[in-house]
Amino acid sequence: MIEVAGLHHDYGGQPSLVDIAFTLAPGEKVVLLGSNGCGKSTLLKILDGLIAAKSGRVDYDGQAVSPSTLKQPDWRRRFRREVALLFQNPDVMLFNPSVYDEIAFGPRQMELDDVDARVRHWAGLVGVTEFLDRPPFTLSGGEKQRVALAALLALEPRLLLLDEPAAALDPRATGWLVDFLADLPVTLLVTTHNLGLAPELGQRALVLGEDHRLLHDGDIEPFLADTERLIAANLAHVHRHRHGGLEHRHWHGHDWQ
Q: Whole domain around residue 13: which residue ranges?
């Protein structure tokens, strides 16, 4: 479904992605890991066609994702319906006067004829039906995240790109999200800082290093068990522990949102 080869990107001459290459097969659920600033969000935006790489190639179903191809109306319409990106901060995605209109926005733009059914179906599945008449800005962070997710799923995309989707969720809602994503019949690429949660989101991991290169592409469990590689990716830290009158230091994997 996705093929990335020789991908480079920079911001003002400062590298953000260096020589990235990988593929995603239909139906795969993959976790994208890396420390802050390594390029995870940039990579998702490139895959979604929101920004362009400096060089290299991104193909979706054998078709290049580029500024020129996204100017082709038929292909752009198909791509925008089939590939969806959930931002880490849902506030940047919500702009309609009501939750109903928020979820209906995509289907209306695509001129689908079952808008109301789609809105009510996905609102029910993510648990926001009771908020359909409310303005999105009145909701909590976790509720906004659910609305933003429903707004994407109303188009029934084939590829879902999620940037820290559990960041605004409490433990109960995080558990719901893990189960919900596991049952979705979509290809999934999701970022998280929570290493304890990562294996629940996918069995394969792509890991970006601080040099903005791909440090690991493979099974997630062996990577999470390799302290040296976690340290190399800045996904582990050391700090002091006190137990009674004793103090010691050792490495820990990062588990933050």
A: 2-253
